[in-house]
Amino acid sequence: MTLDWYGQHQPEKDCRCPRCGEMMWGPKARHALSRYAAITVCDRCGMEEALECAGMVEKRPLVKWCAIALPSIGRGLGEGERDHR
Ligand SMILES: [Zn+2]
Fold first, then answer.
1. pTM over 0.85, yes/no
2. Cα-to-centroid distance, 11 and ligand 1 (Å)
3. How far does residue 49's CA lie from ligand 1's centre (Å)?
4. Percent of residues, the chain, with pLDDT higher than 70
5. For the stretch 49-77, what's the b/e string if a residue is b when 16 or more beta carbons lie within 10 angstroms of its beta carbon?
């Protein structure tokens, strides 16, 4: 599974951030667009990515993204993984 694939299948609202696994309540458009793929991430991850691009912090490898590391989140499941931060 690639992040672009995930972006195409990301629910329009109330989906999980594919990067950190955080719930993103409300419509997808309210949240941040990832710089790495056509996917929506939560505001915090959007900010972290901006810092990564500016070279302020170390890049988080894509394999660490929740949608990749925990594929259940990519399928919209993942209740009980709530405290994954
Ligand atoms: Zn996030």
1. no
2. 15
3. 10
4. 81
5. beebeeeeeeeeeeeebbbbebeebbeee
